[in-house]
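Recall the central idea of this unit: under ordinary conditions, the amino acid sequence of a chain determines the structure it adopts. In this exercise we apply that idea directly, starting from the sequence alone.
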Amino acid sequence: MEIQANQHHLVLGKLNDFLTGSVLADTLDERHRQKIAKKLVLDGRFEKKDIESNVSLEVIAGQKRAVIKIDFLVRYQGKIIALIKYAPGSLVTRRLSTLALSRIMKSYQIPIVVITNGEDAEILDGDSGKVIATGLENLPDKENIKKNILFFSFKPIKKNTFDQASRIAYACEVDGACPCDSDVCIIE
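Accordingly, the structure predicted from this sequence is:
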């Protein structure tokens, strides 16, 4: 086993990314991400091309800017219908920041927002922010999306909402990040 510069992220070797085939560092976090990707394709019946992974997103809070990573965006009929954020530990403490990310990722509200630690998941309604399901077995699936697509509002995000969500995301995802988190890049 090799230990990276950031001491609590053990690199166990290399693995092939399920979605892209690219070679990645094999860490416990990455194993959870791969498990989620496989569930979306094998259980959820999405095509690999419908899932974008490791997406960079700039967050702004006043004069502060940073780039963070969104684990998965799921598309259906040309729209992002789900944002999925992986983070180890408690799900409850990450609800607000993940919902905030869903309000700054696109110019519309992403209808399904998922926070997962790889063992459990909370599925949130993007419009209300309420938990509508729990468990990895309830990750978005294509059949359910087909049935419910007409009920998704895709409401435009107002500037005030965007600004507030960006500040929340910055506070939680950047200011609250572990100092050794390599998924956060502060822009000076």
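The longest helix spans residues 159-175.
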